[in-house]
Amino acid sequence: SLNDDTGFPFIYVFKQATNTAGVNGLTAIILIPVILSNILFNASTARQTFSFARDRGLPFSSWIAKVDEKRKLPVNSIILSCIISALLSLINIGSETAFNAIVSLNVAALMFSYSISMSCLIWRKLFHPHTLPPARWGLGCYGLAVNIIGWLYVLFALFWSFWPEATPVTTETFNWSVVIFVAVFLMYENTISLKTTVATLKLECDSVASEVLECEE
């Protein structure tokens, strides 16, 4: 099944179990939810992009964060998300290795963000439970155990998301997502440091300018 011409093992299983019409029907059952979920994913991504741009965290933030007055929707961020998704899908035409690296990077980024939020929650539950706001529904004494199990699974998935799919490892089979992940992380850190430095310099310049004006008066 792994060497099937379609590239999808589940289609191979369908072909062994039924005829062509059955394969098409069973595959459609899988594809339709995937298509519908992609619409939801795009909506979520567009809203996150809008929020990030609204807080001036992206280039051309004023354009991206613009809300259409008639539709009451962040149309520009939706369009931008669709364009970027389409461009990323075209990478598979030129290099399957690069496309797989981006897909793996997506998994790694999600697992990394989950691990941070879950670890903070576990820390609060263990050492500062009184600081947590009351919840409308909870698992009671089992909640912490579920959080820890989920956190361990996230770390497990994060670890293996950086590994290559097969051996021997070559430039084609190497999982380049780890390189991209570290590079993006370092770029983010440098950007934050640069913004902090610029803000500090601006405050110092404003302070010096105020002192000069006071002296002139």
UniProtKB/TrEMBL annotation:
GO terms for cellular component: membrane. InterPro entries: AA/rel_permease1. The keyword Transmembrane helix applies. Signal peptide: none annotated. Pfam families: AA_permease_2. It comes from the Eukaryota. The keyword rRNA processing does not apply. The chain crosses the membrane at residues 20-41, 73-93, 99-123, 135-162, 174-192. This is Uncharacterized protein. It comes from Aspergillus brasiliensis. It is a multi-pass membrane protein. One of its GO terms (molecular function) is transmembrane transporter activity. It is found in: Membrane. Keywords: Membrane, Transmembrane, Transmembrane helix, Transport.
